[in-house]
Description:
The complex is a heterodimer.
Chain A: H1 2-10, H2 21-24, E1 25-43, E2 46-54, E3 60-67, H3 70-75, E4 88-96, E5 102-109, E6 115-117
Chain B: H1 2-23, E1 31-34, H2 37-41, H3 71-82, E2 108-112, E3 116-121, E4 126-131, E5 152-158, E6 161-167, E7 187-196, E8 199-207, E9 216-224
Antiparallel strand pairs in B: 1-2, 1-9, 2-3, 3-4, 5-6, 6-7, 7-8, 8-9
Amino acid sequence: MKLTLLALMLVAVQVSAHHSFQAEFDANQPITLKGVVSKVDWRNPHSYIFLDVKDENGKVVTWQCEGFPPNMLIRQGWSRDTLKAGDAVSISGYRAKDGSNVINSREVTFPDGTKRYGGPPAD
Amino acid sequence: MFSRIVTALAVLSGAALTAPAQNAPPSDLSGVWQINLPAFLKGGLVPQDQPAPAKAAPRPARAPNDPPYQPWAAEKVKERRENKLKDDPEARCLMPGLPRIVNMPMPMEIIQTPQEVAILYEAFHSFRVIPTDGRGHIDKKQMASDGLYLGDSVGHWEDDTLVVDVTNFNDVTWLDNSGGIHSDALHVTERYRRPDRDTLIYQATLEDPKVFTKPWTVNWTLKLRPGERLMEYECLENNQDPPRLVGK
């Protein structure tokens, strides 16, 4: 399992499980969001973590963080309760090209510093 | 009368005892199999037998293993790539065709009987049933649609190798996750061989006189995943991507 994750981190990627990364997301717009999980949508073909993030004016904005399908997350050691509403986490990824508050999430950092991959690395 | 019945029973039981041995497939391909994920994530149909780099290396430029395209088809593939593959039918949850369905990150399971081989693909919750008992291709008049996503498969054994002849495709599916193109004239010959317990060698030779200049062969290895169970994969319910697939 560790080897798989390591390998996933090292290779370049053009695709996610069922659509092209570049069709939807911009590899030139990396972003790290820090906030509170409001909902975890655990359904194929993509998992979504909804994250409430305070913007520079203190206003809470909800970001939708797309990740691997649950089937792949489970095989990487995730489970349905790895992340719950109310958890404070930071998620790094890449912004959607259409400018919406959607990112392709790559790495989730938990309050204790643990990091987990939730999607493939960017190209 | 009694002796006739006894004779008949003896013949029947003899037939029952010998029939399975005569029909037993020469190799057992059953099990849950999965490709090497890092190779998949590089794009295209990449043979998996390339070790992952030992340390972070400069990111390699993508070099898809492209088929020998006729000029018009190469142009079309270029266009798909320039559009960042946004029109991939799979992104709309349509089933991938061949050989792409065998190159999915989710595992597949092979179930075998003396009469047929069934391949269950977790990806897109799809399956193929491959007769190996001499049944031929289906009558075109009996086809579920003008052309099939996964084609129409007929198999036979050559020593320990399952050889599958696949035809009657549609022209909708993409060959790979790099925008590969084919037509409804696609003809695929697949070969499955299990050299040891943990290894399934897959090879597909593709012929398409409308799109290729000559046949094209790809191959990769799948590994046994003992204890793995296929999961449900419903693609459409939560497929929120299509409106955001803007391409360039």
